[in-house]
């Protein structure tokens, strides 16, 4: 098990180094930071001073090593647009994105898993067929169109929910949360539904496909032959054996939701990292773009590692294989 962890950490470090190199190349070839940070009236002496301060006079290897060392400490320089530390901007925006992703993930599991089980057990019913049709729409509709439709219906027409913003937030140390205020919870509803729609349909279709496969297995026939109740067969035996793909998809999709929440955040003007990245692209704010790339990549790598560890928790066979591998190594 220890060798497995070491191998996974080594792989994660390699991936992060590759991402860091890509982000570093953005710094070097997208534009000259000195020209972007200073106005046209700046003197040559000011340009030379800033170039020396940013370390641009050093060689390629030294600049890359400095960039990696700073990124490992969470330091990505100064935002060209806001003239603030990029790490501070990311820290201010991350709670909003994280809360939105958590809401979308919880909705996808609470809705997607039961719907997947139902459409597998009652696959010939009219309701199951209707849910299958709706799931195709959920996969096909782009998130910005869903968001606009929800705003038109629930904000403009009915006036039930806010159309943009995060509402009132409460500061818990460095963390800001909207869960503790009525307006904050109300503001989460529409963007949470918009972001979770694709995830709901994905989880539902995955659970349905896995359930149909498992329900044809021999151990399900034996369970029914033993006289077990249908509910116990479906939920205790069949659904439990469908959890591993759901864990995989959910873990990876959390990273996808964080990375691609920028569309939802733009539609609802949600003050998260996605909106910050869109603004950075608009103003060619290279440090923010590089920091966003590094943070999202780190989240992907961390979630992949966590999913691998959860495999060993859910499937006892993987724990046994890890123990046997460690014994053979000794």
TrEMBL record:
Transmembrane feature ranges: 12-30, 100-121, 133-163, 183-207, 246-270, 290-314
Domain of life: Bacteria
Membrane topology, record value: Multi-pass membrane protein
InterPro entries: BPD_transp_1_N, MetI-like, MetI-like_sf
Compartmental location: Cell membrane
Annotated Gene Ontology cellular component terms: plasma membrane
Stored SUPFAM superfamilies: MetI-like
Gene Ontology process terms (BP): transmembrane transport
Record's protein name: ABC transporter permease
Organism the protein comes from: Alsobacter sp. KACC 23698
Organism taxonomic ancestry: Bacteria, Pseudomonadati, Pseudomonadota, Alphaproteobacteria, Hyphomicrobiales
